[in-house]
Amino acid sequence: MKKVIYMMVGLILMGFALQSCSDEESYADQKEKERNAIAYFLSRNPLVLVNNSGDTLLNTPGIKVITEEQFEAQDYTTNLDENEYVLFHSTGVYMQIVREGVGEKLEDGDTKRVLCRYWEWNILGDSLQTTDMVPYYATNPEVMNVSNNSGTISATFDTTVNGGGAMYLTYKGTDGTLAVPSGWLAPLTYLKLGRQSTPDGGIAKVRLIVPHSAGHSYATNYVYPCFYEITYQEMRN
User: Residue 192 in contact with residue 217, Cβ under 8 Å?
Assistant: First the structure.
């Protein structure tokens, strides 16, 4: 499994090196390439394979984009049968709520420690980039301290619990810090953050398309969008 992880990191670094060779490509050109990649991802039948054995993360018809107004009219839900994603125009993030979750929503003034498990797919590179959904990271999910301050959701990675998960360990800076991607915070207004207590009570789960401007530092620096599937679960005290 370590070999697989090292291979993934090696592929990421190789991809970044290739991108850095394109010195003549302007930021405007990079953003246009990103927009085209997202548009293609929305229109095609997205088939996302998570490993060489062919396990499938996502294989659905083309994505149906709905407006924030329609999302509100649907009581802040997305129709899974129609593969709906809501587009938040202010950030460019697309979100599908697979499960609202259990427990309570994060109210004003609340702070919760939240466990996240995820798959990250580089849309521009059309490849799996990082994930903590493998045995190597089974005991190291991402841990976030999440707060609601007058409706504004903020979060920080908490590495005191387990030293950090796949995202933190892959993308942290030389100073040992990594900001939580703002795209990861977009769903938290609409989800219930609790723990599964019954067989039918699944924890919160979303799918996101996150442009570079709402992504982690590497996505921002190298201008590429990512697809995520993420679960959010309140951490036991």
Answer: no
Spatial CB neighbours of 121, under 8 Å, sequence gap ≥ 6: 48, 57, 127, 128, 129, 226, 227, 228
**Hey, is 69 helix, strand or coil?**
helix
User: Can you give the residue ranges of every domain in the chain?
Assistant: 2-234
CB 103 within 8 A of CB 192: yes
Choose the CATH number for 2-234 among 3.40.630.30, 3.40.640.10, 3.10.50.40, 3.40.50.11290: 3.10.50.40
Helices in 62-124 by DSSP H: which ranges? 68-73
Query: What pLDDT shows up at residue 60?
Result: 58
What's the rounded Cα separation, in Å, for the pair 89 and 213? 12
Contacts of 148-155 with C-beta under 8 Å, sequence gap 24+, read: 148/106, 148/107, 148/108, 148/109, 148/110, 148/111, 149/108, 149/109, 150/108, 151/108, 151/189, 153/106, 153/185, 153/188, 153/189, 154/185, 155/114, 155/180, 155/184, 155/185, 155/188
Tally of CA atoms within 13 A in the half-sphere of 113 that contains its CB: 9
- Decide if 227 contacts 115 (C-beta within 8 A): no
Nearest 10 degrees: CA dihedral of 214, 60, 5, 177?
10
Quote the pTM value: 0.87
pLDDT tens for residues 205-232?
999 999 999 999 999 999 999 999 999 9
Burial class (CB in 10 A: 0-12, 13-18, 19+), 130: buried
